[in-house]
Amino acid sequence: MSMPTLLLLAAFLACSNSTEVTYTQFNGTDDTVTIKVGVAELLDPVSADLTSTTGEVIVGHFDVDPGGGPIGTEHAIVVEVYDAYQQIVDRVSVRLDSGARGEDEFELEQDSADEGVWKLSIVSAGDTNEVRDDTLNVRCWDQDGDTGAQVGTTTNTSTNTSTSTDTASDTGT
Length: 173
Prior knowledge:
Elements: H1 3-16, E1 21-25, E2 32-37, E3 46-51, E4 58-65, E5 68-69, E6 74-81, E7 91-97, E8 103-107, E9 109-110, E10 117-123, E11 132-143, E12 155-158, E13 167-169
Parallel strand pairs: 2-5, 10-13
Antiparallel strand pairs: 1-11, 1-12, 2-11, 3-4, 4-6, 6-10, 7-8, 7-11, 9-10
């Protein structure tokens, strides 16, 4: 190869080399709530604590409002990470398990005025007269290698950390 060709190849490889960002789950793997989908009326909000990986320390809490409702109901998910742990949590997601409809995961959006608050709205979907329980598992993530790194239980990789959505609609919830 000629010298100009080698230089072009080196420049191409340098530009196309993406850095993989990895995350470790900071909170406990059992931080879940169940909501009723397809019921006739709106139900009271449901909430749960966010715990450390051992379950011994409460690091925050989350609410889902309403805690159930008819198909097409918009559910607000609000997560609050307590002040002492806000610098550790770089990203928050919720894993939705809709039983036979499958699983999906959604990114929450961080509040611009309070770095410990994260929010997402999802709309329940389903067939007419379908009634089911959906499980929502909130997962707080610490970016590996940053100054807030902590030992966790689950690792997740991502090449794009800006995937937050305000509203998600799926065949699940």
